[in-house]
Design brief:
12 strands; 41% helix; Aspartate Aminotransferase, domain 2
């Protein structure tokens, strides 16, 4: 049967060889990274979710590199890599020991992002649905829509994502013939809202997965940057629940290293390993392994948590006067971000465009919701990267933009 509308027109274009439906959907959407604004000299960057420059252990990595090359010579550049790869794998086995049961496996990924892609390929068929928080990590949405058009969101309500909504969504999707295969969830300092799922809601989510057999994809990218005592991860709450836990060093060491991991039932981990179809990153893995072998990672995390807490407090203090203009937000308890709800008549797209004239870069909330969903009338601001001295000036620019 011929398809109608833009998708059908694209697929039926006689001048090109046919593409898959998922490829066409991808091409019809925004290009990856199109949401990131272009910065000019003098701009204040509250858009980028990067670690601040001093957080990246450049000196330690430099020493690890020289030690590795002096000892290993060409071996680090070969397919099998240098011994640092072994150090990394040993570290990962120990670091994830409390998450894993005897039935679980662990694999290295190119950041948590590749973990998201690999697990969806392994557990989601095209006719099935994925449930996500709404708003959620925009690049995860890009991945999901490559594999299924059936992605549905749990709307934020009163600074939480209500678990009881998931059951209603599952019933609706089942009735529509697109049963839910997986739930994608960030329980700790969610990107973009910064929301942390309560222990009660975590337990309810795990119980729902146990009852229905739906996979839980736990993206724990920001978990290690808790300013206070962290709640248990979803994976640790019940060893028998189908949870795939995704972790990364991108937020605590450096995103360009592309080191992440997945922990889950051995059968799904083995499927992910076969389906991701790459040879890993031997050079990067060996370098990070060398650094970890010579580093007290727990002390490194402690220093980062203190630094990011200071940044979050400074950002909250700078933003406080905006409350007089109707902006509301919650102080961050970890991670990189704060979510600013805007007064009427502002939308995220409108204020972010206005802020560009004031040389302040933020991300509109519209980038974090599914295509066709309403602009959530909010923006994400990052306290992780910009110099803290820019926070008061950035808030002044935000205030001036609200005044028009």
């Amino acid at each position: 049967m011929a398809r109608e509308g833009p998708l059908g027109d694209f697929m039926q274009n006689a001048r090109i060889a046919p593409l898959s439906e998922s490829a066409v959907r991808a091409l019809m959407g925004p290009a990856p990274g199109a949401w990131m604004p272009v910065l000019e000299p003098g701009d204040i960057n509250w858009a980028s979710g990067y670690p601040f420059p001093e957080a990246v252990p450049v000196d330690g990595m430099n020493q690890a590199w020289h030690d590795m090359i002096a000892r290993e010579r060409d071996q680090a550049f070969q397919y099998l890599g240098a011994r640092g790869q072994g150090y990394l794998r040993d570290w990962l086995q120990e670091y994830t020991r409390d998450l894993r049961s005897h039935a679980d496996g662990v694999m290295l990924t190119l950041g948590a992002f590749q973990g998201i892609d690999a697990v969806v390929r392994a557990v989601v068929d095209p006719g099935r649905s994925i449930v996500v928080q709404s708003p959620t990590y925009m690049e995860a949405l890009e991945v999901f829509q490559n594999y299924t058009p059936h992605v549905v969101g749990v709307p934020r309500e009163n600074h939480r994502f209500p678990i009881d909504t998931i059951r209603r969504l599952m019933t609706r999707q089942n009735e529509a013939g697109h049963p839910v295969a997986a739930i994608y969830w960030q329980a700790d300092f969610q990107n973009p809202t910064g929301i942390t799922t309560s222990l009660e809601d975590r337990q309810a989510l795990v119980e729902l997965a146990a009852e229905t057999g739906v996979w839980l994809i736990e993206d724990a990218a920001y978990r290690e940057l808790s300013f206070d005592q962290a709640l248990p991860p979803l994976k640790a709450l019940s060893p028998d629940v189908p949870v795939i836990h995704l972790g990364t060093l991108s937020k605590t060491v450096g995103p360009g290293l592309r080191i992440g991991w997945a922990v889950g039932p051995t059968r799904v981990v083995h499927a992910m390993e076969r389906m991701k179809k790459d040879l890993g990153h031997p050079l990067g893995e060996a370098l990070v392994g060398e650094w970890l072998h010579a580093t007290e990672y727990a002390a490194h995390l402690t220093a980062l948590r203190m630094a990011y807490r200071q940044r979050a407090d400074a950002m909250a203090e700078a933003l406080r006067p905006l409350a007089d203009q109707g902006v509301t937000f919650q102080r961050a308890l970890g991670g990189y971000f704060m979510w600013l709800d805007l007064p009427q008549p502002w939308t995220g797209d409108r204020i972010s465009a206005q802020l560009r004239h004031h040389r302040l870069s933020v991300l509109s909330g519209s980038h974090f919701v599914l295509p066709g969903d309403a602009d959530p009338r909010a923006v994400r601001v990052s306290f992780s990267y910009a110099p803290m001295r820019t926070f008061p000036e950035g808030a002044r620019r935000f205030s001036a933009a609200l005044r028009g």
